[in-house]
Amino acid sequence: MRRGIGAFGALLLVTGCNSDSPPQYSLAGGEKGVFSSRNAGSPIPLDRIKGLSETQLVTLLGTGVLDRKDDPARALRYQSDACVLFVYLYRKSGTTWQAEFADAYDLQLRPLPVDQCAGSVAAQKKRVA
After folding, report:
1. Strands, DSSP E only, in the chain?
2. Are 75 and 66 in contact (CB under 8 A)?
3. CATH code (residue 114)
4. Average pLDDT in the 36-48 region?
5. Considering only CA atoms, which of 96, 100, 97, 60 is closest in space to residue 78?
6. What percent of the chain has pLDDT over 90?
7. Number of neighbours of residue 33 by Cβ within 10 angstroms
8. Could you give the CA distance from residue 63 to residue 79 in angstroms, rounded to a whole number?
9. What is the pLDDT of residue 26?
10. What is the pLDDT of residues 78-92, one digit of tens each?
11. Which DSSP letter does residue 82 get?
12. pLDDT tens across 59-77, in order?
């Protein structure tokens, strides 16, 4: 009898852990970001950022607050009072770094349109002497 109760208990544990429904959590959360800046500047479309060299990025956006290099990829992080902008650069066969992609987040790391954030970063750009 004990053996039957133990087997039944094990069966309950296994079936209780198995579920056909997807998990009820998400890393992204699906929330849209909130853009609110005291100095928003003019939006800069992603197409204008793509293809820029490192020097051109400094001219447009200032100096990034983070520069991570993992050759052949590189990530520059910029920040304004409203958002965080990541610009990803690549170089092929030892050529110069060129921007290929960007993404933006509000200060709670919810996604934002790149153009709004890039405009804000450019309006508030910082330069390192």
Report:
1. 66-70, 73-79, 83-90, 98-106, 111-112
2. yes
3. 3.30.160
4. 92
5. 60
6. 53
7. 19
8. 10
9. 44
10. 999 999 999 999 998
11. S
12. 999 999 999 998 889 999 9
Q: Is residue 75 part of a domain?
A: yes
In whole angstroms, give the CA distance from residue 82 to residue 109.
11
CB 126 within 8 A of CB 60: no
Contact 33, 114 (CB under 8 A): no
The number of domains in the chain is 1
- Is residue 15 helix, strand or coil? helix
Length of the chain: 129
Higher model confidence: residue 60 or residue 5? 60
114 vs 60: CA distance, rounded Å? 14
